[in-house]
UniProtKB/TrEMBL annotation:
Primary site of residence: membrane
Entry annotated with the keyword Disulfide bond: yes
Membrane topology term: Single-pass type I membrane protein
InterPro entries xrefs: Integrin_beta_N (IPR033760), Integrin_bsu (IPR015812), PSI (IPR016201)
Name of the protein described by the UniProt record: PSI domain-containing protein
PANTHER family for the chain: INTEGRIN BETA SUBUNIT, INTEGRIN BETA-5
Source organism of this protein record: Sinocyclocheilus grahami (Dianchi golden-line fish)
Subcellular location: Cell membrane
Family statement: Belongs to the integrin beta chain family.
Gene3D superfamilies: ligand-binding face of the semaphorins, domain 2 (3.30.1680.10)
Cited Pfam families: PSI_integrin (PF17205)
Annotated keywords: Calcium, Cell adhesion, Cell membrane, Disulfide bond, EGF-like domain, Glycoprotein, Integrin, Magnesium, Membrane, Metal-binding, Repeat, Signal, Transmembrane, Transmembrane helix
């Protein structure tokens, strides 16, 4: 049991260290040596890609994959930074109802929202509240 907790503690500690894109002082975005936008965005949810054509031509450090704020500091204009975020939106959200409140028994709404749209980036999270009405 003690070994289990030591392994669990190490896992939690490593997850904490890597949640912001740094692991033991290394920038995971730049350490992945991504050569495309797709590769870059798959490295970590906080990595961004600079699509600006002339970016990095006058520098020795020319990785297009980095944190958004680092790319801007190195001369990438904000409109050229690809950094999609996960999100959700409600598409259909009728209020919950109980048996007998609708015209027919099929008009009862027991789940809210009824329809959502998710846009998920690999490795990141999105929050979707869900309510159930149980009779």
């Amino acid at each position: 049991i003690e070994t289990f907790f030591m392994v669990l503690n190490a896992y939690i500690h490593n997850a904490y260290l890597t949640c912001n894109g740094f692991f033991l002082g290394l920038n995971v975005c730049m350490s992945g040596s991504a050569t495309s936008c797709e590769e870059c965005l798959l490295i970590h949810p906080n990595c961004a890609w600079c699509a600006q054509e002339d970016f990095g031509q006058a520098r020795t450090l020319n990785s297009r994959c980095d944190f958004s704020q680092n790319l801007q500091k190195r001369g990438c204009d904000a409109p050229f930074i690809e950094n999609p975020r996960s999100g959700s939106s409600l598409l259909l959200s009728k209020p919950l109802s109980s048996k007998g409140s609708g015209v027919t028994q099929y008009d009862v709404i027991q789940i809210y929202p009824q329809k959502i749209s998710l846009s998920l980036r690999p490795g990141s999270c999105a929050f979707c509240p869900l309510m159930l009405f149980v009779m």
